[in-house]
Design a protein that fits this description.
It contains 2 helices and 9 strands. The protein has 133 residues and is of the alpha+beta class. The longest helix is centred in the first third of the chain and has 18 residues.
Amino acid sequence: MKKLFSMMLLCTAILFSLSSCSDDEEDLNPQSTTYTFLYSATTPPEGIDLDVTLFEYNSINEIVSQKSIKKCVQGYSEKFTADNNTQKVKVYLVATNGKQSVANWVQKVYYLTKGKNSQVVVSGDLRIGKIEP
């Protein structure tokens, strides 16, 4: 009788331990939010360096992180892991020729999908301007 009771107790414990596993455990290790930056516009002319800054913003439009790319050229691609609070990315371009620089914002906001990889593509047909989008 003791053996039967011990076996039933063991089976009950196993059932409870198996049923306690749930999808909530996935929230403890969420998949990272990433984005791939691709510069597909033309390479700046000889003597002009193009630096890119990727600003990451949260839901209330605060900058939570930034990534920098020096001397960006056509075809440049890099994957970044976003800060946990990042919801969108804005792109800032600075073209420098010696001591003279011209800075512009890409007039597009790139929204990220949590736990997925999003594309941040700067192509030649995008508008740029002095005002942050």
